[in-house]
């Protein structure tokens, strides 16, 4: 990994630190809201999503909640967090800039920050944005157009065909929303090309005040996840002070490399 000062001026990081990829303007224009209403929506977004989840979220059918129930509420909640976390997300984009290459999957891509950043990377050939929420798809398409990104470089999916393979998989603030994170981790392993990278984090916690009722916190499921992660993947060190981790497949080295002292 190249850790020189060029990281500070990479297109995605510099643009995000300037204005979060113009997120606030995109949101206002996409939803046709005046500035005062937008600011009010952003201010109450976290509490509004938590209240909705306490009422409508169920682990028996979590997909329905994200596809049908959250509507604009999730856009506001995700946007509020991104707008208030520029330094943290900027560091995350540095990591993506370091290791993103070839065909990239942004799994559970939300409002598209990571997919858009990957699309700005000259080493990335194609970005697959995958999310259950149809409104998120519309918003990310809108954002990509506003940012004048190459439309041929971005593809949109709600499910990933098993035959697709990737050089980089991004899964940020997603795995704790899934009923079986271990099963998804095994899919990531199968989807990665040899030498491919998995950029991932997790937050298996419902919050000190139950503000994240849609987060998984079952100890047995979490233990299974970490056992699989430690068995199938090898962590790659990075210098950024963030919760995001980078991994490669834990595959045996060629025999000639194993014998070197």
Can you put this structure into words, describing what you see?
- The protein has a single domain, classed as Rossmann fold (3-Layer(aba) Sandwich).
- Helices cover 48% and strands 16% of the residues.
- The protein contains 11 helices and 7 strands.
- Helix 2 packs across helix 8 and helix 3 crosses helix 5.
- The N terminus and C terminus are likely disordered.
- This is tRNA (Mo5U34)-methyltransferase.
Task: Summarize it.
Helix content is 48%, strand content 16%.
Strand proportion, as a percent range, falls in 15-25%
- Largest sheet composition: 7 strands, mixed
Instruction: Specify Rg, calculated over alpha carbons.
Output: 19 Å
Question: How helical, in percent, are the residues?
Answer: 40-55%
Low-confidence stretches: 1-9, 256-261
The name of the CATH architecture is 3-Layer(aba) Sandwich
Total strands: the figure is 7
Pfam families: Methyltransf_23 (PF13489)
Protein name: tRNA (Mo5U34)-methyltransferase
Organism: Microcystis aeruginosa NIES-2519
GO molecular function: methyltransferase activity
């Amino acid at each position: 990994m190249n850790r020189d000062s060029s990281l500070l001026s990479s297109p995605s990081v510099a643009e995000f630190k300037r204005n979060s990829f113009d997120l606030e303007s995109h949101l206002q224009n996409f939803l046709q809201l005046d500035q005062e209403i937008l600011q009010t929506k952003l201010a109450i977004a976290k509490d509004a999503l938590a209240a909705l989840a306490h009422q409508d979220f169920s682990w028996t059918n979590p997909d329905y909640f994200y596809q049908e129930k959250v509507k604009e509420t999730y856009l506001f909640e995700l946007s509020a967090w991104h707008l208030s976390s520029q330094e943290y997300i900027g560091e995350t984009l540095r990591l993506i800039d370091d290791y993103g290459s070839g065909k990239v999957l942004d799994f559970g891509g939300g409002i598209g920050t990571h997919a858009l950043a990957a699309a700005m990377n000259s080493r990335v050939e194609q970005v697959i944005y995958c999310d259950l929420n149809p409104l998120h798809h519309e918003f990310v398409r809108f954002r990509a157009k506003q940012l004048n990104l190459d439309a041929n470089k971005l593809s949109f999916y709600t499910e990933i065909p098993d035959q697709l393979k990737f050089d980089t998989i991004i899964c940020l603030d997603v795995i704790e929303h899934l009923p079986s994170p271990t099963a998804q981790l095994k899919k990531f392993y199968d989807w990665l090309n040899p030498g491919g990278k998995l950029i991932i984090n997790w937050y298996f916690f419902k919050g000190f005040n139950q503000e994240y009722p849609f987060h998984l916190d079952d100890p047995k499921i979490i233990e299974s996840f970490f056992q699989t992660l430690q068995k199938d993947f090898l962590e790659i060190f990075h210098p950024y002070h963030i919760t995001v981790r980078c991994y490669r497949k834990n595959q045996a080295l060629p025999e000639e490399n194993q014998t070197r002292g």
